[in-house]
Design brief:
Length: 164
């Protein structure tokens, strides 16, 4: 889609305009003019704040990644349910530092979100140098196995998807 200087985010502008009209529940001329003004002005003001993001280089791999994550979420839900229904004394919660090879913000955000979406694990923090992701696990029996799982099932595909 061709971008114009005066319309840096055309889809956002259209959405802003439609949402404005829906919120006001009116198509009166005043609402049309004000909605158009806001739809053009807000993206112009926000455009300089945009951070360039890496492009998805392998979209089919991205679809496979999403399906893998959905499957992992289902399996982890069952595992966590079984753990929680058992004795709470048997749980071994722990924090794990996962070394990272990713450097771009978007892939790192997706990785941290994926870990948090999978029941039983939560991304606790990303180190300031962005080389470590600290993960809290509800029940940890093998730290190295968790690290390898995160790196092979999530980080490696993200590196391929974004070619970084």
């Amino acid at each position: 889609m061709k971008r114009f200087r005066w319309l840096p985010m055309p889809v956002h502008s259209l959405l802003l305009f439609v949402v404005w009209l829906l919120l006001n529940n009116s198509a009166a001329p005043g609402h049309l003019v004000l909605g158009a003004f806001l739809a053009l002005t807000i993206p112009l003001l926000c455009a300089p704040l945009q951070i360039p993001q890496p492009v998805v280089r392998r979209p089919l791999l991205a679809v496979r990644y999403v399906l893998r994550v959905l499957g992992d979420i289902v399996v982890a839900n069952v595992e966590v349910a079984l753990l929680v229904m058992g004795s709470m004394r048997k749980l071994q919660p722990a924090f794990v530092a996962v070394p990272l090879e990713l450097t771009s913000e978007l892939p790192l955000t997706i990785l941290a979100s994926t870990v948090s979406l999978t029941p039983g694990t939560v991304s606790a923090e990303l180190s300031e140098d962005r080389r470590w992701l600290y993960v809290h696990a509800l029940h940890l029996t093998d730290e190295q196995a968790l690290i390898e799982t995160i790196k092979s099932r999530y980080e490696a595909p993200l590196k391929e998807i974004f070619a970084c």
